[in-house]
């Protein structure tokens, strides 16, 4: 399978394919035009990655409100995240595995926002008949799934990996708070967390942000609980993540032209 066929399977433009895999745009053009050929190991790597992404797709855009779709229960109508997520699950009427921020809510690592709208999950594409639903993938290994209070959700390691894969469209406040809690609950260590090599550098940056934000909150709020200070750190999280998203190193030297 050549590069063009791989890209077509994903339904990506050359620009989208370039951004998805960190390959310079001109390199993609040269490969498809036959001016250059990617090394065999690169083709093999891309085939594996694309095969995985076709099963568990990385989202590129957030869904816009569609008046033709049905609405899910509002977060603001419930006291606590778990009752709301149970209502969402019952409304969907099918087996779903909550992901990202919703998974963190199931874990008790993040309280969410009163105006929560986006629902991240693994399940059938039919779940997207409701406004706000983002289906990350149709299948997920049982090894990556946990259950609590009758809700199924991705475990913490998978949640971190999904956050890094979808960082371009994800509000990183939730995962940053959760990483901070994890760090201090595990003897100031991330040793039990493992991420894919391509996300390692970004994970280290995010981990440093989580540690720094916890320390700042700890001193500024006289040892109050993290949940009591999340509203004070929201802008800080968003600013840091906004900056990090735009200060990525040029990956051009990683790919042969």
Automatic annotation (TrEMBL):
This is Toxin-antitoxin system, antitoxin component, Xre family. It comes from the Bacteria. It comes from uncultured bacterium Contigcl_1149. CDD domains: HTH_XRE (cd00093). Residues 3-38 form the HTH cro/C1-type domain. GO terms for molecular function: DNA binding. InterPro entries: Cro/C1-type_HTH, Lambda_DNA-bd_dom_sf.
């Amino acid at each position: 399978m050549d590069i063009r066929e791989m890209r077509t399977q994903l339904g990506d433009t050359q620009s989208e394919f370039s951004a998805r895999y960190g390959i310079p745009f001109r390199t993609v053009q040269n490969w498809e035009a036959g001016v250059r050929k990617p090394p065999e190991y690169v083709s093999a790597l891309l085939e594996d990655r694309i095969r995985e992404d076709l099963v568990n797709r990385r989202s590129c855009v957030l869904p816009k409100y569609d008046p033709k779709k049905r609405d899910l229960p509002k977060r603001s109508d419930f006291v606590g995240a778990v009752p709301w997520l149970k209502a969402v699950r019952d409304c969907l009427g099918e087996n779903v595995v909550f992901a990202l921020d919703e998974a963190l809510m199931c874990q008790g690592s993040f309280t969410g926002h009163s105006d929560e709208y986006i629902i991240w999950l693994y399940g059938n594409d039919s779940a997207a008949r409701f406004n706000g639903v983002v289906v990350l993938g149709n299948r997920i290994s049982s090894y990556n799934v946990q259950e609590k209070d009758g809700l199924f959700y991705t475990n913490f390691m998978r949640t971190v990996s999904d956050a890094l894969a979808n960082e371009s469209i994800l509000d990183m406040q939730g995962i940053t708070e959760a990483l901070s809690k994890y760090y201090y609950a595990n003897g100031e260590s991330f040793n039990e967390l493992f991420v894919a090599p391509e996300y390692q550098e970004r994970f280290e940056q995010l981990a440093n942000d989580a540690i720094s934000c916890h320390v700042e909150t700890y001193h500024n709020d006289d040892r109050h609980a993290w949940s009591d200070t999340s509203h004070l750190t929201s802008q800080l999280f968003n600013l840091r993540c906004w900056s990090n998203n735009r200060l990525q190193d040029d990956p051009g030297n990683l790919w042969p032209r």
